[in-house]
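Figure 3 (text version): structure tokens given as input.
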């Protein structure tokens, strides 16, 4: 068949028109503002990562200045591809299927236990698995598993939420997952606890049971601390105690325990209203460890000033509040729980990162969503964001006409 015949054939034109119709429908069901915010935050992250990592790349790795930029650009590209695949080929029915749920939970427990026994310790936390020079943090993806699992649990029991005994089995699964993560990565464990708490609030469980759940959660935390005391001889690990002491008085030991937070506060204060200018920050030049990862917001504050800080926080707020908007509008329990869970996932991680580097709370070592360098965290955010877009597509298609 010639090209002219293909372009002018009735069947071919019909297929093209059908494709364009489907494409327009997809665009109509896609929340373009959310996608734009995701892309803009990712681009800001690339710019600040390049600025923050140019010198460390050369001094510490003897690599080119764009070493971390190229790595992050690869993850951003993979993230966009993953979102496109999820949005076009994944349906909520798959996420809710019992087989998918079972495989997801069992594999998560297996990989977390494998990391606990055979993982690599980095910065005091044994939460990495390395394949050659590439490493992943399995705990980053457990957050998504917890969201999807609890969403299905509450959806399937939505007509009988007052029967608390039907939640004993799922509670055991969540405790196993959360406790396993807490032992490896306290910051990620705290985020999972926040996600679980928010999901319980959005589920509509009678308030009288929430107190029981809080009590059970407190007992579980006490048990975790007790096990840690038997294992190490202290309630918290040494690095965790160090972070608490640093939080209480970072300037008592500014050259050792308080070195990171002291230099972070200096970087933030240097930014002023407009910042020193992109690439012209000083604190990233060996004074601020982990400048391109956990403390990247301090670099952003120094170089972009208050204007840059408010811009990024504003973008994060759009992302979180849009997800909560859809969660509150939908009548489907599964959709509501997933969107609320993803929103709190983002919000909790933003709070822990920004609160830690600004001395509002103790440092937890969690990255800033979409901006900090790191493949595991970026891909975890991308998967969660892609799932949220799928849910929003269903809501816009059936509920928000």
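Below: residues designed for each position.
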């Amino acid at each position: 068949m010639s090209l002219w015949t293909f372009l002018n054939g009735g069947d071919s034109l019909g297929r093209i028109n059908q494709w364009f119709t489907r494409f327009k429908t997809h665009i109509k069901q896609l929340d373009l503002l959310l996608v734009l915010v995701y892309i803009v935050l990712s681009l800001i992250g690339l710019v600040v990562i390049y600025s923050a990592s140019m010198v460390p790349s050369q001094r510490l790795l003897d690599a080119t200045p764009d070493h971390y930029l190229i790595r992050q650009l690869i993850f951003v590209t993979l993230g966009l591809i993953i979102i496109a695949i999820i949005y076009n080929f994944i349906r909520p029915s798959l996420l809710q299927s019992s087989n998918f749920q079972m495989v997801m939970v069992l594999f998560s427990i297996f990989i977390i236990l494998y990391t606990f026994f055979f993982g690599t310790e980095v910065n005091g936390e044994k939460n990495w698995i390395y394949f050659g020079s590439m490493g992943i943090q399995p705990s980053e993806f457990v957050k998504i598993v917890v969201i999807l699992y609890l969403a299905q649990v509450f959806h399937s029991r939505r007509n009988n939420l007052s029967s608390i005994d039907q939640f004993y089995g799922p509670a055991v699964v969540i405790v196993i997952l959360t406790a396993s993560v807490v032992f490896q990565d306290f910051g990620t464990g705290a985020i999972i606890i926040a996600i679980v708490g928010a999901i319980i609030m959005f589920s509509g469980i009678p308030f009288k049971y929430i107190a029981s759940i809080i009590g059970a959660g407190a007992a579980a935390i006490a048990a975790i601390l007790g096990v840690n005391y038997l294992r190490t001889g202290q309630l918290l690990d040494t690095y965790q105690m160090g972070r608490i002491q640093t939080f209480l008085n970072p300037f008592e030991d500014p050259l050792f325990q308080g070195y990171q937070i002291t230099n972070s506060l200096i970087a933030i204060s240097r930014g002023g209203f407009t910042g020193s200018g992109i690439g012209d920050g000083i604190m990233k030049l060996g004074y601020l460890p982990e400048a391109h990862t956990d403390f990247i917001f301090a670099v952003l504050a120094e170089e972009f000033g208050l204007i840059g800080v408010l811009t990024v926080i504003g973008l994060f707020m759009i992302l979180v509040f849009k997800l909560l908007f859809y969660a509150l509008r939908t009548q489907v329990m599964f959709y509501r729980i997933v969107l609320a869970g993803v929103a709190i996932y983002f919000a909790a991680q933003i709070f822990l990162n920004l609160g830690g580097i600004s001395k509002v709370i103790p440092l937890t070592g969690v990255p800033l969503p979409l901006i900090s360098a790191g493949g595991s965290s970026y891909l975890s955010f991308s998967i969660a964001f892609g799932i949220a877009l799928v849910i929003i597509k269903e809501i816009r298609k059936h509920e928000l006409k």
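The mean pLDDT is 83.
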